[in-house]
Specification:
Length: 88
């Protein structure tokens, strides 16, 4: 499971929009969709109900979203701490 896939997933969950999630990640909507599909294939679960106007989390998607936010937060905390500690 790649952090970039989790980040794209979280942005779709937060905005309900594949296009907006793609914009936030600096990628195309097709790439964002591919990242979501990769997560679903890895987990063997549907994470989003895909509607024309609004994507909504499935129950499994909600569980992943709750944990993914924490994983991404921890990653940013560790990265910041390591950068701070590497300063002279």
């Amino acid at each position: 499971m790649k952090l970039r896939n989790l980040k794209a997933f979280c942005h779709v969950a937060e905005t309900g929009s594949l296009s907006e999630a793609a914009r936030r990640n600096g990628i195309t909507p097709a790439s964002a969709g591919s990242r979501l599909l990769t997560l679903e294939q890895q987990l063997g679960l549907m994470l989003l109900y895909r509607k024309r106007q609004q994507h909504k989390l499935t129950p499994a998607g909600q569980v992943l979203y709750d944990h993914a936010r924490e994983i991404l937060r921890l990653y940013e905390d560790v990265k910041a701490r390591l950068q701070k500690e590497s300063q002279p």
